[in-house]
Amino acid sequence: MNGNGWTPDRPIVSLKDVHKSFGSLQVLKGISLDVMKGEVVCIIGPSGSGKSTLIRCINALNDIQQGSITVEGQEVHDPKLDKLALRKKVGMVFQQYNLFPHKTALQNVMMAPLLVLKRNREEVERRARALLAKVRLQGKEDSYPGELSGGQQQRVAIARSLAMNPGVMLFDEVTAALDPETVKEVLVTIKELAGEGMTCILVTHEMGFARELADRIYFTDKGVIVEHGPPATFFDRAKDPRTREFLSQIL
Amino acid sequence: MPKAIPGLTAAARTDLPVLHSHKALYAAASPIGFSRWLAGLPLWFPLMLAAAAAVWPLTAGAQSGSGESIAGAFETLLRWIPFLLFDGFTFTVLIGAATMLVGTLLGVFLGLGQISIHPAIAKLSYFLTQIFRNSPWLVLLFIVMLSFPFELNIGGLIIPVPDWIKAVIGLSLPIMANISEIVRGAVNSVPSAQWEAAESLAFTRQQTLWRIVLPQCIKRMIPPWMNWYAILTMATPIVSILGVEEVLNLTRQAIEAENNRPVLLIPFYSFVLLIFFLYCYPIARWTVRLERRFAVKL
C-alpha cells in the first residue's frame, strides 16, 4: 500500500537507538522498541523520564537527533518524508484533550476528514456520528467542548483521531487530567478499541489498566528503557532494582 | 469583620485572614488603554467644555472692550454648525474610515508576515512593523505628502491624487503597524497545543492558521482594533496642517471668515472638541464592554 514493502508480519512501529535532546538536556538516550500490528504497548516510568517525548517523536511532533523511527516501514525523520502522509497513519490523543473550542463535538470529528482527506461531506458526517456513538456520546454532537466534562472531551478527542482511520493510536497520559470518576469511561473506550485490534501505544500512570490490557510494558527511566516484558512478568517478577523501586512506590 | 477577597469582584467575602496580593503602583499597559481612559471620563466633562465656552466670551469681551455678548458669539457658532458638521466632521469620519480600511488590510498581511515560518519574511515584517509603529505620525505624513505625485499617469490616463488620499495613505502606515501587532499578539495568544492537535491530524500550516487558530482569536482582535479607530479619529486633525479640509481646518477658516474675533476662539474650538468627544466616547464604551465580554474565561 505504501510502496516500501511493509507487511503486517513486521513491526508497524519500530524505534532503533533513538536519541533526543532539548539543547544540552538529553531526554532520550538510545531507545529501541518494536510494536506489532494489533499490539497494545504501555510505557510507564517516573515523570521526566522521557515517556511523552518518546511518543511525540513517533508522529514527528518532536524531531530526533540520532537513531531511526519507522511507521509501517517508513522512516519518520527522513527530511524528505511527507509528514502529512505519516500523520494520516498515526492518531494521537493528548493529556489536555486539545479539542478545537470554536467547533462542536461533531465538527471537531468531521474537520480533518473533510479538509485533509477531502472526503465527501455526507459520508464524513455519517461516520462522525457513528464514531461519537461508539464513544458513547450520542446526543452530544452539537455541544461545544466547553460544555462537556473532561471525560467527554477526551472521548471526542479519541473519536476525532479515529475519524482519520489511523493504523496506530498514540495516547499521551490521556487520563492524567481527569477526575477519578471519569477516568473509567475513557479507559473503557480505549479498551474497546484495543479489543477491535487497534494498535495502541499508551503512556500511562494507570497501573491496573496497563496490567489488564497491555501485551507488553516498557519501563523507562532517565531516557533509557530499563526493563520490558508482558505484564505478569513485569509486575510480579521485575528484575531491575529501579523498576522494583518504582513499582513499590506506585502500587 | 468580613474582608473582600482580592481578585474577586463578586460578593465573595471572608472573615478568615487573607493574604492581600501585591498592589502595583502602575497598572500594566492595556491594549485598549485609550478607550479605558475615555470611557472612564465622567459625563460632566462635556458640560465643563460647554461652561468654558460660555465663560470665555465674557472675559474676552471685557479685554477687548468691544462688549460683545455671549449670545452674539453663540449665534455665530450656531450659524456655522451645519457647515462644520456636514462638511467638516463628515470628511473627518471619511478619512478615518478609509485609513482604517487600508491600514487593516495592510496590517493583517504584515501581521501574518510576522508569524511566517520563513525567517526572511518574519524578520522583514517585524522590522516594518517596528519602524512604522514607532515613527512620529506627522513625519510619516510629510514623507507621503511630499514624495507622492499629485497625479498618476497610467498609460496616458491621468488620475489626480488629492491631498486627502495622500493623508489616508500617510495615516494608514502607523495604523497598519499597530494592526500587525494586534494580529501577531492574538495568534500567539492561542495555546500551542492547538497547533499540535491540528498538526497531529495532518492539517497543513495554512489550514491550521485559517481554520483553527484565526477563528479562535478574531474576537479578541476586535476591541484593540476599535481602540485604534478611536485613537486614529482623535489624531485626524493633524492632516489639517497639510491643507486637507477636515473639521479643524474648516473651523479655522470659519473663524477667519468672522474676522478672527477673539471671542469666537473658545466656543468654536470647544465645539470641535465636543464633537470628537461625542463621536469617540460611545465607541470607547462599546470597546470596553466587548473587551470584557470576549475576555478569556478562566
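qc> Residues 73 and 264 of chain B are 6 Å apart (CA to CA).
qc> done
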